[in-house]
Specification:
The protein is of the alpha+beta class. Helix content is about 30%, strand content about 20%. The chain contains 10 helices and 12 strands. The strands form 2 sheets. The chain has an 8-stranded mixed beta sheet with strand order 3-2-6-7-8-9-1-10. Strands 5-4-12-11 form a 4-stranded antiparallel beta sheet, with no helix packed on it. The N and C termini lie far apart (about 55 Å). Pfam families: Fer4_22 (PF17179). GO terms for molecular function: iron-sulfur cluster binding; metal ion binding. Keywords: Iron, Iron-sulfur, Metal-binding.
Length: about 350
């Protein structure tokens, strides 16, 4: 892929979106007026769009892009007494608009579903093969973001088709996918070298631990979350790197021989996630669940793959109804680690 830069007037960029819509489904953050969690509040969440004006380029999305790849509920196959039929998917390619932190999150999703074992996840791969990405530049940091300290504020080495920044009523795009060159050239105001905008500073800061002593796993620091956390799982569902799911069989007949199997998003923070046969349940306390989630995001995943799972998007901090700050938890782990090390 080469790199060419283009400047568009709003009408020209809208033409680009209209042209691309003929070949791609375009999935982007959209401002949903009055559809927020509280009365008369708005929310920014992903949806399919047809025009450039529908894309929310200014506000941070409250939910991540990941539902295009890992739907909340996904039918894998249908079954009868004699046959099994794989579910169909939309065969059209998809262009997903996302920011640098989420493009870095994609790397984490691919790691889990495609490179975490002897075989890739078939149902994830068949969707992933049809998805391309558009990098939305960040002119400034957003509330609760800590992407700089997580090293996910830039996406220079990641794969995206083109970038887009809205500056002074002009759309600035860096094109990397030569397949789209004609569409861009025919509608641009002019060509110009373009570099996507990236955040360089966050108001929220985290210090990551270099290593974590075993005593952290049994520390009393987790006990406060037994009462503070309510186990709603919102932090998991807005997180772009949470990948856990469960399986559900839906039966159409009383004999249980006709129905469908679904993969459904699950959450390590909600009741029932660790239930096992015989009535056993691991991590009953919310503090234990918080420890599990935290260690997975900043320790376990990195120990296995060499980089942290958390990308510092800050959505978990924003969405928590109990005002629990994950960035603060990271700093608590680091402080406790240093305290233990200094005692030796």
């Amino acid at each position: 892929m080469g790199k060419r830069g283009y400047i568009f007037l709003p009408g020209g960029f809208n033409k680009v979106i209209e042209e691309l819509s003929k070949s791609y489904r375009i999935y982007a953050p959209v401002l949903k007026v009055g559809e927020g969690r509280f009365t008369d509040t708005d929310v920014v969440r992903y949806d399919f769009v047809k025009e450039a004006s529908e894309i929310e380029l200014d506000k941070k999305s409250d939910y991540s892009f990941k539902e295009i790849l890992t739907p909340l509920s996904q039918t894998l196959f249908f079954f009868t007494e004699n046959d099994v039929k794989e579910s169909e998917i939309d065969e059209r390619e998809v262009l997903v608009f996302l920011r640098s932190c989420d493009l870095n999150a994609l790397k984490r999703l691919d790691q889990i579903y495609l490179h975490n074992g002897r075989e890739e996840d078939y149902f994830y791969a068949r969707i992933r093969d049809k998805v391309k990405f558009v990098l939305m530049g960040c002119a400034h940091s957003y509330e609760d973001c800590f992407c700089v300290d997580m090293g996910t504020n830039r996406a220079d080495d990641l794969d995206y088709s083109f970038s887009v920044d809205y500056i002074d009523n002009r759309f600035h795009c860096q094109l990397k996918d030569s397949v789209l060159e004609d569409v861009f050239t025919n509608n641009a105001l002019k060509e110009q070298d373009i570099t996507p905008r990236f955040v360089t500073e966050n108001e929220t800061r985290v210090q990551l631990p270099d290593s974590v002593p075993l005593s952290i796993f049994t520390s009393d620091m987790w006990e406060e979350y037994n009462t503070r956390c309510i186990g709603c799982g919102r932090c998991n569902y807005v997180c772009p790197t949470c990948t856990c799911y469960t399986m559900q069989d839906v039966y159409y007949t009383d004999n249980g021989r006709v129905g469908e199997r679904r993969r459904v998003n699950a959450s390590c923070m909600v009741d029932g996630y660790t239930n096992v046969a015989g009535g056993g349940e691991y991590r009953k306390k919310y503090g234990e669940r918080m420890r599990f989630k935290t260690m997975h995001k900043i320790y376990d995943f990195k120990k296995r793959f060499g980089y942290n799972m958390c990308v510092g998007c800050g959505r978990c901090d924003t969405v928590c109804p109990e005002y629990i700050s994950f960035s603060n938890i990271i700093n608590k782990v680091t402080a406790k680690t240093l305290e233990v090390q200094n005692e030796k």
